[in-house]
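Re-run requested by the PI after the first attempt was lost when the workstation crashed. Everything re-entered from the original request form. Ligand of interest: 4'-deoxy-4'-aminopyridoxal-5'-phosphate.
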Amino acid sequence: MNVELNAEPRAVTRGLVRASYEAISLYSPNRAPCRIDLSDNTNLWGVPPSVRALLHSSADSAVTRYPRAYADDLKRAIGAYLGVAPEWVVTGCGSDDVLDSTLRAFTEPGETLAYPDPSFAMVETFARMNGLAPLPIPFTGDFDADADALLGSRAPVIYLCSPNNPTGTILDRRTVERIAREASGVVILDEAYAEFADGDCLDLLSKSDRLVITRTMSKAFGLAGLRVGYSVSAPNLAKEIEKSRGPYKVNSLAERAAVTALTEDRAWVAARVADARESRARLIAELVSRGFTPLSSQANFVLVPIPRAELVSVCLRERGVAVRPFVALRDIGDVIRITVGPWSMMEECLTALDEVQSCE
Ligand code: PMP
């Protein structure tokens, strides 16, 4: 029988919904298709060749059977990639899933999540999803984390992001080291963009029993649509994150694709990262020559302060280029974030930006 249910919103029955969810709205970036999409920091050079071949040749059982409950093959491949034992790794449906699970694992509703601001916008949402009070703390003047204020919060979880989204800036590793050493609770270091940076903080795992580093296959590895992310932490923490994550979160095709990319296409990924770093430097130089003041970036995107960012992004979209606007970021103001891609895309973006600036 076919039931006709239309899209009209209905009044929600009183008492049915969780009161703390009233402050949460659905994630809704403008994802309308656009000729050149520079809005989501994915790999604009495409899919690793080994993954394309795998997706065309996967056996039916990858679809009909359940995946491995905790993605053991993938944990081994990630362990080999980073030089850690698989017991240190937790996988998830994107690093979003791992971040959310980590918050749930180490907090009770009503507690606090402290993090530098501005940072990854979803972190506030993950806090609220888990009944936590978000505590954004301004960066210091040079985009380093305010260690005194973060530690002083005594939050059960402190979230750090380096390179930071949306600024692209990195934290001073001495600050990360101090926070990981002195925090009373767990410290999450989100390294979603680590592959594009000059260095990372993985080695701090050997010095801290409370550090959880999260990474993703969505950025440098070009697999955002397959949703694979992971964390690395001491095994006793990893076990708790896995409990809160639950089984079967990485689907079979995604697990196989991620394993294939990690084992067969690391050279391809490294070459694309080199391309991205080159485009990034050229894009920043071009922006500076036009009088913009882009932030120094260690990620695959560049943040550009610009008045009326929302209007600018609409005008860029009309010219076939999508960027991500942010309005009134703390201490920075209005900005657009431009994902770095092949130089031909950057040229089109710059041309569109020139046009938008000249018609103001
Ligand atoms: N962390 C940061 C800093 C991000 O920018 C993103 C994606 N925008 C994520 C985590 C989540 O990525 P994914 O869920 O695709 O792994």
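Saved to the shared folder this time. The mean pLDDT is 95.
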